[in-house]
Design goal:
Elements lengths: L1 H10 L4 H21 L15 H4 L1 H8 L11
Length: 75
Amino acid sequence: MEEAHAEYIERCGGNPFLQIAVPEASKKLVQSVGRLLRKEEDSGKVVLLDRRIITRRYGQSLLDSLPPFKRVIEP
């Protein structure tokens, strides 16, 4: 089913990675952060070790899907 959907998107001139994989990853990332932060008083750290989050164009859309909290990007 997923492969057929990806093929359909390609035939229509779209990009299956950007239209299927990135939104799905974004959803999972938001769900994971939601499990960490249940109440306003909660605190925690989300550490993304994959540098592609800042080196690839889809990384910004993943970051934008997260709540607006402080971000520290280390070299």
